[in-house]
Design brief:
This protein has about 280 residues and is α+β, with helices and mostly antiparallel strands. It has two domains: about 1-150, Arc Repressor Mutant, subunit A, CATH 1.10.10.10; about 170-275, Heat Shock Protein 90 (2-Layer Sandwich). It contains eight helices and 13 strands. The chain has helices spanning about 50-65, 70-80, 85-100, 165-170, 170-185, 210-215, 220-230, 270-275; strands at about 1-5, 20, 30, 35-40, 45-50, 70, 110-115, 115-120, 190-195, 200-205, 235-240, 245-250, 255-260. The strands form three sheets. It has a five-stranded antiparallel sheet, with no helix packed on it. A hairpin with a 2-residue loop joins β4 (about 35-40) and β5. The two termini are about 30 Å apart.
Length: about 280
């Protein structure tokens, strides 16, 4: 897990996130599941935390059902799909998340239920009802519903009104998301666009050879997605650590995320692909 200090939060593009309280009264966290990142905002100064794939997936699963106990085995399956890891890996991720959220001593945010699992305390999830009506809305990113398999709980936020115009341009939103993520973490970056029916695809890789390989290896998958798409969808496609990452941006502005191991790409079910598209 790495950290770095960024510019104030208003420089962040409009990317789906969830707002969390932390163990510090002067600090709010913005969790970005699609980027595997969490921003700690102290008076406008942001410390950006790279949670990594597994850490982000553990927190994502807990936030799908705040107030409900999630079994340890379920967290292991969600965060380490297609991998066999021990209980110690989950213990380490929970410990790290508690450190990031300033909860390592009180353990009130991520609570342990002995012999059952873990639970995210819903009192630490910020919703629209928690925010003042006259709050200035130009400082932090919007919080919009984020649908992933399985779907995250919807978190309504009045700040979405500021970004209605940008959300109408689906492809623009996709480019912003991809540009920010890969500029911060994987610079330099090359992209290629392709239209297949109602599907707009943006391929993202670090060099020309990898970009061409990505397009060749995913061509059958792209064709299958295009045949299943029943409305305009913008798709971001990237290869990382042996997994194909797909982010489907829907007309309403919601994003669905799908991770496919390279060994499973020829056997992915239509049901899973439809979940990404719908």
């Amino acid at each position: 897990m790495s950290t770095f200090t960024s510019t104030p939060a208003d420089s962040r593009p409009s990317i789906a996130c969830l707002t969390l309280r932390t163990g510090r009264s002067d600090c709010i966290a913005q969790f970005y599941p699609a980027l595997y990142q969490l921003d700690l905002d102290r008076d406008g100064q942001v410390e950006r935390i790279d949670l990594g794939f597994s850490g982000s997936r553990v927190l994502e699963r807990l936030l799908q059902s705040p107030g409900d106990v999630v079994a340890r085995d379920e967290l292991l399956t969600h965060a380490w799909s297609d991998r066999v890891v021990g209980q110690g890996s989950l213990n380490q991720q929970i410990y790290t998340l508690r450190q990031v959220l300033a909860d390592e001593k009180q353990r009130q945010i991520i609570q342990t239920l002995p012999r059952r699992g873990y639970m995210f305390n819903p009192q630490y999830l910020v919703t629209a009802q928690d925010e003042p009506d006259d709050e200035v809305v130009d400082a932090t990113p919007e919080v919009i519903p984020l649908a992933m398999p399985p779907t995250l709980a919807t978190v309504p936020n009045p700040r979405r009104l500021k970004f209605v115009a940008a959300s109408l341009c689906l492809f623009g939103l996709l480019v912003l998301c991809g540009s920010f993520y890969y500029t911060q973490l994987r610079s330099p970056v090359l992209t290629a666009q392709e239209n297949l029916g109602t599907l707009q695809i943006t391929y993202v890789e670090e060099d020309a050879q990898e970009l061409q390989q990505l397009m060749r290896s995913t061509h059958p998958l792209a064709r299958q997605l295009a045949e299943l798409a029943t409305r305009p969808i913008s798709l971001l496609l990237h290869m990382t650590s042996g997994f194909y990452e797909l982010v489907c941006v829907q007309p309403e502005g919601n994003s669905n995320w799908l991770l496919i191991h390279e060994s499973q790409i020829a056997r992915i079910s239509q049901e899973q692909l439809r979940k990404c598209l719908n």
